[in-house]
Amino acid sequence: MNELQGNADRELVEALRRSRLFREYERVFGEATGLPLALRPLEYWQLAHRGKRNENPFCALLAENPKTLAVCLQAHEDMVRHTGDLPSTVTCPFGLTETAVPLKLGKKTIGYLRVGQVLRQSPHPSDTAKAGRTVTRTGAHFTPQIRRAWEKNPVLPSQRYDAIVRLLTFFAEQLSALSNQLLVRQQNQEPLVVAKARQYIEQHQGEQISLAHVASASGASVFHFCKIFHKSTGLRFTDYLGRVRVEAARTKLLNPNLRISEVAYDAGFQSLTQFNRTFRRVFGQSPSDFRARLRSGKRVPSVLPGK
Fold this sequence. Notes:
Layout: H1 3-18, H2 20-33, E1 38-41, H3 57-63, H4 66-81, E2 88-91, E3 97-105, E4 108-118, H5 125-137, H6 144-151, H7 158-189, H8 192-204, H9 211-218, H10 222-233, H11 237-252, H12 260-266, H13 272-283, H14 287-296
Helix pairs in contact: 1-7, 3-6, 8-9, 9-10
C-alpha cells in the first residue's frame, strides 16, 4: 500500500470511528458485554484498548511496563498479520483471548474491529503460575498488584465469546457499507486538481518539491491551484507537504536502528531542525519523545494530512 492510499484509508477509518453508528454501537456493546471495543486502522502502534473505559486492569498494568508492553505489542502485531478475510482469534502469551475482525472496503481490508482481553475458562492455579512465569521472563516482576489483577480477569465461555465475535462480523458489514458511502462522498467533494496534487506529492515526497511543480502536475496555474487546494484541504501547500512527510517519517521512526536524522532526510526534509519543528507542530511532541512514548505505552497523537 502506498502512503497516499494508506493516509486515505486511515482518514476513512477515523471518519467511521466518529460516526454516530459506531459510537452508539460501541456504547451498547460495552454495556451488554462489559468488554472494550476498538476500531483501528491497519497501521496502529499502540494497544488497541489502551485507555478505554472497559480496558482490562491486568492488561493496563502490563502496558505500564515497557518490558511487558513489548510482548503485548508483538502479540497484537502477530494477530493482525494473520488476519485475512475472516476474524482471527488468538491467545496472548499471558493467556488472554484477543480477536481482530477485518473491516473491508470492497475486497480490501482497511482496518479491524478489536475485542478481547478475556479468559475463556476459569483460571486454574497453574494458569496463574504460568502467567507469572511469562511476566518474569520479560524481566518484569509479577507483583501482588499484577497477581490480583490477573485473578480478576473476566471469564467468557468459548460459546458466548464466539457469539460475540459473530455479532461483530455483522457489524463490520454495516461499517463496510457506511465506508463506501463516505468514500463516494469524499470523492465527489474533492476537485480533480487536488486529487492529482495529492498523488504527485505522494510519489515525490522524498524529493525536492516546489509549489510550481505540483501546480503544473495538477494542470492548474499556481494562483488557481493555491486557491482550490486551500479550500479543499484547509491547509496551505507547504503545511500539507510537511504533514505528509512527517506521517511517512513517523512510520520509519518505529525502526530503532534508524537515526532520527536519517529518517528526516529520507522523508524529504532539508534539515533536522526543520523536521523537529514540523513534527512537533503536527503531533505536539518531538520525534525523540514519540519514540519514548511508544516504548512507555502512552498514547501517541494521530494527525493526518488534510485534517
